[in-house]
Structure formats: structure tokens, C-alpha cells
Amino acid sequence: xxxxxxFALAQDQTDELASFRSLFHFPKHAGKPVVYFCGNxxxxxxxxxxxxxxxxxxxxxxxxxxxxFAGRNPWLHYHKLLTAPTARLVGAKPHEVVVxxxxxxxxxxxxxxxxxxxxxRYKILMEGGAFPxxxxxxxxxxxxxxxxPDNAIVELVPRAGEHTLHTSDITAKIHELGDTLALVLxxxxxxxxxxxxxxxxxxxxxHSVGAKAxxxxxxxxxxxxxxxxxxxxxxxxxxxxxxxxxxAGGTSGVFVHEKYAQDNTLxxxxxxxxxxxxxxxxxxxxxxxxxxxxxWQLSNAQILPMAVHKASLxxxxxxxxxxxxxxxxxxxxxxxxxxxxxxxxxxxVKINILTPRNPTERGCQLSLVFDTKGKAIHQxxxxxxxxxxxxxxxxxxxxxxxLYNSFEDVWRFYEILKxxxxx
Length: 423
Prior knowledge:
alpha/beta, Aspartate Aminotransferase, domain 2, 14 helices, 17 strands, globular
């Protein structure tokens, strides 16, 4: 790698995914597209999203209720249009995935089925400092079953002086908890540090002590290569508004391993859209779950957010995750290289990267700690046209997303950062 604009431009010229940048709307700053490094919080809008939504609005206007059957994408089965690309996205079989609801709703629905505590096996293992919504969901589930969170929830914390977790420490804690452990529930990528967990090894360890393994993939879906079926993950859920570019509050995805596809003994909170579709409109009593993940559905499809999600998934299918991941590795490595150069060039401000240096232990995000004036620097970056985000108490998260970010973006970030801190 070279510390030069010429190097960045040369990388962009040979990037086979460079054209995908033109498929997204970029906010503007001083008449130029911003450097948008916030796809880990809210992805950019696909240019095709507007027409996708307008099509459904037009069908609603022109057809009314008949849009369920006569629309260009009939609403009755709209969620099925998302099944195949979703399966490809997370390494699943089509019957193992469904798009529905929002992430935390789905997390609760899945814990109803897969957190089945008893007086001996009742503990949940999660990372310390997990995203608050996950913390609240787990806390409330534990209380719902009559347990005290301080006793039932076990949090993983890094070793003294470190910021991220070792896989060996995670699996050791699983074996230590043994037959008291009911569920391992981690983020696929920790939202704060950007650490990607070894989901295959963690799942295997959980199963070895008789526990279930589930993952919140909000920061992993569309960011990492996932093989949920082959890893034998029990369940997972994710949002679609971060790396999947499907709009604020967008719909969510669910994975349930096929070994549970016909397990009608699992408790679940049922709704009519999860009922046997051959008899759904007979309006009879007696819930008969659909085969696979569709059996966890509650209500009919959220057409407008799903239309945006469909537009985004079509882009992912064209780009493909293997190519995106390959570019991501190079793009984030270049970002890391320039941050190290920044640290070597001056004494005023130093940046510590919380995110693991091992590329297999991270996605595209880097979490940066400034030794001084971090919040002020974030504000100045924003004023200069760099869109990143601040997370208390002291982290600026940047995410050079391979689908629409360029090597030139990374170079602009470096130059603007240098100008801010040296001025």
C-alpha cells in the first residue's frame, strides 16, 4: 500500500465493484457528495428504492384490496420475493429464512422458542456492553420466566487492559457454565468495537453443553460472509437498515435452522401469517405452523418497507457477497494503514483502533478512540463533510462500505482528519 491519492485512485480504477457507487444517493456537503462512513448505522438509499415504493403505491391506488392478488408483485405472497436473496445473504436454505417485523420483535419471538429455562438450566451468556435493545430484551425475557437478571445473565468482558474478546475465553466460559447454560446470544459483530465473533466455534461450544446458540446479526448481515446453515446456528435475526440499505426502521430478517422446520413442540407466539397457508383463509381455530422459518410469522407483509428491501437485495445479488467481502478487506486495510500513518506523522493527537487488527475478526467497521478532543474532532469532521458516528463514551465509528465507498473516500477522510488535527 502507498500513502497517496494516486494509489487510492488506481485502486478505484481497477475495482470491479466501483460502478455500484452510482446506484446510491449520497447526501451533499458544499455541493459535493459527503464521505459517507455511516453505513453501519443507516445505509444509503438505493436509487431504485423510490420507484419500488411508488409501484406499490400505484397498485394500491389503482387496485385497492385487489393488489393482494392482481398487483405487479401480488402482496399476498410478497415476502416470498425476498426469500431466495435473503438465503444467499446469510448462507441458509430458503426454508430457513423469512423477512418480517423488526429486529427486537423478532428477537423476542425467537427467544420464546429457544430460551426454555428450568430450575437448573436457565442462564444466558451474552457480551458485556451488547447493544441496549438486546440487553433489554434479554433482561425482560429472564424476568418473564421468573429469574433475576443479575443471576441469570452472564456477561463476557475482555481481559484486563484489552477491548475485545478472545474466542477461547468465550468457549471456556460456555464450558464453565455447562448444564446451567440455556442460551448463548451474541451479536455477530459487536456494534461498539466492531469485533466479529467466530459464530461457528461458539455455536459448537454451546451445543456441546446442551445450550442453544443465537445471534443478532444487525452489524453482520451484508457485512460478513455468513454460513448460518453450515455453522448449525439455531436462530438469528437482523435488521435491514444498516449494511442492507433498506431505510430507517426497515424490516427484519429471521433464520431458524432446518432441524426445527417441523418441530411443532417448540412454543411460539403465533399469528395467522405463520399458519398453514393452504388453510389460512378458512379462519379456523387451531394453529398449524408453516414449514420452516415462515411458521414464526405473525402478520401479513409490510409491503412498503419490503419494497425498499427488495430493491436493495437485488443490488446485493448483482454484486455478490464474496466480491463485496474481498473489497471490504482491502478497503478497511487501507483505512487502517492511513490511520497508522496519521499516528506516525504528528504528536498532537493519537488514535487507538479498538477493532481487532486481524481481518477475520472484523467487518468493514473500525472503532477509533482519540486520546484527546474526540467529540470535538467528530463535530469538525461532520462540519467538513465526513459522516461518521459518535458512540459514548469515546468512540468514533467509521465504516467504509464496499458497496458504495471508494478508496478515494478513505483518502479524503485521512486528509480532512489531518487538516483538522494539525490546524
